[in-house]
């Protein structure tokens, strides 16, 4: 190992910077050499891991979707087999990858718990493991994951992972990956709502807001409501299901919220709240009308919070009410402005390229899927996933082709 000499004329600040750099390199080297000593165990239940799990998720940069409460709500509703991967080094938990086994076409696929309804996935890593980033021996790590899942899964498919999230590189970098066809869109918060708006076309946005407000007042008025009672929160979620079902039907698309398990999962999230951790699994917010339309809901949204990160999980509007006011976008204004001063740093609109997201979100984040075969059948399934994902990305990058594909999808139901 080569050493670097210090110039005797260097300033103290330079020495400190070099020392910090040396310590960082030593930590990364230590983690890389330690890979051979990391043990990976597989758990078929969440409860034995709860203490370690909650300790890891305390890191602000770990995704809400890998939090214990989020995963517990999903597991309670879907009851799928679990194969949770826990890595241990020197008696300390290095990582937890919350994985369930999903059967598809005779294949057993290991996926993040709740992957079908998550917008960003990071896994759970200790600070030292997370900071190691790309220094981990990816080949050895992949082999250990394959060995741990052998006999339980044909393919490890960890979807929607940003390679870098808020300045931290994922330790999963280096594993076999394909870029997901969907990107996510975020709005960073500044100290005031006015400062946040400056990232956008603030003048036009304020003008649009004034026009919307006048039209809503002319229709009888409105109120922005976040119900405090659990009963009202659950009632609003059922209203969302009805509005979304009508919307999907009008487009000729399948209703992804229609099955009993998904509805039970989302209802379960409503009661998972911990103010001390700035955490709630799901919170319903609505734009409710007054006057002749008293009590009618024009727009509704469900958001989640972990630390300083807000994620918009879904939204819907009643298309028969005040359509000229763009009630869904008006609700976002109310939600985003109302969150300022409450310790929020980032509002996440989640996956999917839509016009309203681009109008609100100056940050676009690419996501990737880890595609790691475990069996020979998994090799074929992994190759198929890559082909399908790249084809979808190709189509979505071409608006005319994407509109054609959407039309075909609607016609075949």
Give the SSE layout:
Blueprint: H1 12-34, E1 39-43, H2 50-57, H3 68-78, E2 84-89, E3 92-97, E4 99-104, E5 107-112, E6 124-125, H4 127-132, H5 138-149, E7 155-161, E8 164-165, E9 168-169, E10 177-188, H6 193-197, H7 202-218, E11 222-225, H8 230-251, H9 260-270, E12 273-274, E13 279-289, E14 297-306, E15 309-317, H10 327-339, E16 346-351, H11 355-360, E17 363-373, H12 376-396, H13 399-412
Parallel strand pairs: 5-7, 15-16
Antiparallel strand pairs: 1-2, 2-3, 3-6, 4-5, 7-17, 8-9, 10-16, 10-17, 11-13, 12-13, 13-14, 14-15
Helix pairs in contact: 3-9, 8-9
Write up what this structure looks like.
The protein has 413 residues and is of the alpha+beta class. The longest helix is centred in the N-terminal third of the chain and has 23 residues, at 12-34. Strands 4, 5, 7, 10, 11, 12, 13, 14, 15, 16 and 17 form an eleven-stranded mixed beta sheet that branches. A four-stranded antiparallel beta sheet has the order 1-2-3-6, with helices on both faces. α3 runs antiparallel to α9 and α8 (230-251) packs antiparallel against α9. It is globular, with a radius of gyration of 23 Å. The model is unreliable at 1-13, 22-33 and 404-413 (pLDDT under 50). The protein has 13 helices and 17 strands.
